[in-house]
Structure formats: C-alpha cells, structure tokens
Amino acid sequence: MQLITGASGFIGNVLVRQLQEGGQALRAIVRPGKNPFSLRGLDIEIVPGDVLDVDSLLHAMDGVDVVYHLAAKISFASGPDLEAERVNLQGTQNVITAMRRAGARKLVYTSSVYALSLPESGVVDETLPFDASHARGSYDRSKAAASLEVKNASGLETVIVCPTAVVGPYDFQVSEVGRGILYNMRPGIKFYVDGAYDFVDVRDVAHGLIMVAEKGRCGEIYILGGDRLSILKAAETIWEMSGGWHKGLRLPDWVINQVAGLMPLLVENPLVTAYGLRAVRSNSHISHEKATRELDFHPRPAEQSIRDSVLWWQDKLKETWQIPDAFTGRIA
C-alpha cells in the first residue's frame, strides 16, 4: 500500500493518475470537510486526516510501505506565514513520527528547489545545502527546515525531490503558475517583468517521484527541473496559444517594486509579491542532470508544457467553474 499526502493538489492528483496506471494500491489523506474533486473517478482509497494530527496519520498508515509526502501550504508572502510554517515543518515532523510508529519503510518527500541555498551565479544543483536561515520567505524557510528533518530522519529510507516551477494540465486548485497562465490568456495589454524561471511539466514531476521511489538512493536529493524560460518567452507562448490580441508591456523595476509592496495591503492573495519578484530575479540556471543520470528523467520541453496547460484551461473554462481572478486571487 502506498500513501499520498496532498493527493488532491496539483502534483498529487497527477501522481495518483500515474500510480493507478501501474496498478498500485493507493490511499490518500484528505482533510475532513474538503471536497477532493481533482480525485473524482480515480481508483484510490480516501481517508480523513490532517498532517497536523498524528493520530489521523497513524490510522492512514496502517499497512502502508511507501509514503509520498506532498501536503504543503504554498505561500508567496514576503513576511511571516505561521500557517505555512506549521503545515510544512510540523506537518512533516508528524509524518516522520507516524511512519516510525506505524512501521512504514520509505518516505519520498517533495521539497522545493527554492529551499536550497541558491548562489547568485553558477549552476544550481544538489550539492547546495538546504538553508533555512537565508530564505526569501516563510515558504522557502519552512520547506528548507522540513527537508533537513527528512534528511536526519533515522530509521527511515528517505529521498527528497526538489521540483522547479511546475506547469501543465490537471491544475484543479489553480497553482501560482496557473494563475500566471490565466492572466496571460486574457486578451489585451499584459504587463511583465524581467526575469526567468525553470519550468517543469507536472506529469514529468509525477513520473520523477515514482522513479525516485523505485530507484532513488536513500538519503539523496534530486532536482526535477525542465527548461529555463524568460517571463516574456513564457508569456508569448501563452499569447500564441490563446488567440486574440495581446501586447506585452514591460514594467520598470521601480514600478513593479512599488506594486509588489502595495498589493498585499489591497488583496488577500496577490499575484505580484516581493517574494515572487525575488524568485524570478534569482539564479534560475538549474541542473536536473543527476535525475537524468540516475533516474532516467527526461522532461518534455517547457514550451510544450505551457501549451498543454493553456489547452487544458481552455477546456475547463467552458465548464461552470468558479475560477479565481488571476491577478487578485478573488473569485470573479
């Protein structure tokens, strides 16, 4: 039996789809009262639970051998986010505790490339340490601290994966990258900033997680990345697929810096934050060569993944969805 935390999330639901194709016995923890609509129609046992409740984790781990721990609070807040730190750090500590008590063997933990200590220049790879003391925000700090807990979890077989910016179909909960795609799909003038991300397809990340569980070396870290694209190139790919009239307008740094400072005061979940700006301006020359060498990880081109994401959203927008406004996060 394999257990997945965060199974209803972006990576999680795609991982479930791929695991069930292999005939695996699967179980997912879903918080009580939450509707896991992204798992609808999939062959998976759903049990109520919460990573902040050790007893519920113990119940869910009965008979489990491998745990994929993906549950996390993603936060682009530049200031403190106590919930992100509780879910990401304490939740991971609870998973480790429950695994030891339940006798589960292997933990595959999904961290983030931004939990690593990123140098200003040079190639980002797995030789870099997790650094909780110099993080850009609560998310990076909590994921780095949680990753160190996993590395030091004696008695378990642990492997850590660090995806880059995840893109692709099945984005039911509207990820931060998904919001950027939705923003750029709408015709008209579109603002962009200088910067770049390494984009990786969610389907390749899910496949990489499965390969890590099967072939990953205990105690190792694997970066699951794709292609480095400028923000403008990613936007142009979306505009080309979306149709209609699009015009890009680059905002000067001083303007976007002011916007990033004001947006959190005006809306609860802004698309533009100081954290996000630091991320796109940081070193995005990221290597996934180790995963290719050891796991046979060969991600598809990022532009293809963006196109597939646009096609998926175009299909979903025909349905009666309440999709958040891409820029503010509010339900339109």
DSSP E strands, number:
12
Order of helices and strands: EHEEHEHEHEEHEEHEEHEHHHH
As residue ranges, the low-confidence spans are 327-332
Helix-strand makeup class:
alpha/beta
CATH structural architecture of the domain at 2-167 and 199-227 and 285-300: 3-Layer(aba) Sandwich
How would you briefly describe this protein structure?
The chain has 332 residues and is of the alpha/beta class.
Explain what this protein looks like in three dimensions.
The termini are far apart. The protein has helices at 10-21, 54-60, 82-102, 138-151, 176-185, 202-215, 231-242, 253-266, 274-281, 289-295, 302-316, and strands spanning 2-5, 26-30, 45-48, 66-69, 106-110, 157-163, 165-167, 188-192, 196-201, 221-224, 227-230, 246-250. Helix 3 links the parallel strand 4 and strand 5. The radius of gyration is 19 Å and the shape is globular. It is of the alpha/beta class and 332 residues long. It has a domain at 2-167 and 199-227 and 285-300: 3-Layer(aba) Sandwich (Rossmann fold). It is built from eleven helices and twelve strands. Mean pLDDT is 90; it is low at 327-332. Helix 3 (82-102) packs parallel to helix 4 and helix 5 packs across helix 11. The strands form three sheets. The protein has a seven-stranded parallel β-sheet, sandwiched between helices. Strands 7-9-11 form a three-stranded mixed β-sheet.
Entry keywords:
332 residues; alpha/beta; Rossmann fold; seven-stranded parallel beta sheet; 11 helices; disordered C terminus
